[in-house]
Specification:
Radius of gyration: 18 Å
Strand content: under 5%
Number of strands: 2
Number of helices: 11
Strand order of the largest sheet: 1-2
Distance between the termini: 35 Å
Structural class: mainly alpha
Helix content: 40-55%
Bound molecules: glutathione
Shape: globular
């Protein structure tokens, strides 16, 4: 969103979990990333951030001027944050629980203060914390994978209805594209996503997204993705 607005920024990468302590010490209003300092304000949470960026530089707008359309975009943005991202995050950490070696590929271009090999070698406590924080159980993840087709149908419907995928992209486009791009790092899921309008939107708005996780799931879990 910052690049899209043409706002210069400095990015600081933080190890997950460690990020919580750092954000607390830096007096951000929450302990999640992304967090942003802009115009002297500290902002936490991607939906707070989209509003703050829009206030700092209104053009091109991240929300439609029409109030009814704005509500639609805000609803889609919230869904992308609460449903899509949380689901994809659970699927992601469940895959990493099975094999953490692919974590290294996610550190391409990141500067976290330790060599990537060492970060991955010492990641076990971070993975354990993520599994706990995010409620990553096999049952939850099986349900998330079963729900994914419905999520993609919903996104494609928004694209067809003009809520998403218009020019200029809105805050919901960015929220949902980022969640989809994380899902597309998983070889288990990517084929079901990339051929759809949702996948094309994600690749267009977020062309570069590091990380790749080879297929790890029991094939019966993936059945809901295959059947029409
Ligand atoms: N889309 C969410 C993402 C926030 C979020 O849950 N961030 C995660 C990382 S993607 C986080 O900081 N979790 C705490 C942790 O990993 O310790 C937002 O509103 O900003």
């Amino acid at each position: 969103m910052l690049e899209h607005k043409g706002i210069d920024f400095r990015r600081i990468d933080l190890m997950p979990v460690v990020s919580r302590g750092v954000l607390k010490v830096m007096r951000f209003p929450g302990v999640t990333i992304p967090s942003l300092r802009i115009d002297g304000r500290r902002v936490t949470g991607s939906r707070e951030i989209s509003k703050a960026i829009d206030a700092a530089k209104p053009d091109p707008p991240l929300f439609p001027a029409d109030p009814a359309q704005r509500v639609q975009v805000e609803d889609a943005e919230r869904w992308g944050d609460e449903v899509l991202q949380n689901g994809v995050r659970r699927i992601f950490w469940n895959a990493i629980k099975r094999d953490r070696a692919p974590l290294r590929s996610f550190l391409d271009g990141a500067r976290i203060g330790v060599p990537p090999g060492m970060a991955v070698a010492t990641a076990a406590p971070i993975i354990a914390a993520e599994l706990r924080i995010n409620g990553v159980t096999d049952e939850a993840v099986e349900a998330d994978i079963a729900a994914l087709r419905g999520w993609l149908d919903r996104i494609d419907g928004w694209i067809e209805g003009g809520v998403l995928g218009e020019d200029p992209p809105n805050a919901a486009d960015f929220q949902i594209a980022a969640g989809l791009r994380l899902a597309m790092t998983l070889d288990d899921l990517r084929p079901a996503i990339e051929e759809r309008p949702a996948g094309a939107l994600a690749l267009r708005l977020v062309p570069n997204f590091p990380g790749r996780v080879p297929a790890v799931r029991p094939s019966e879990w993936l059945e809901p993705l295959r059947t029409a």
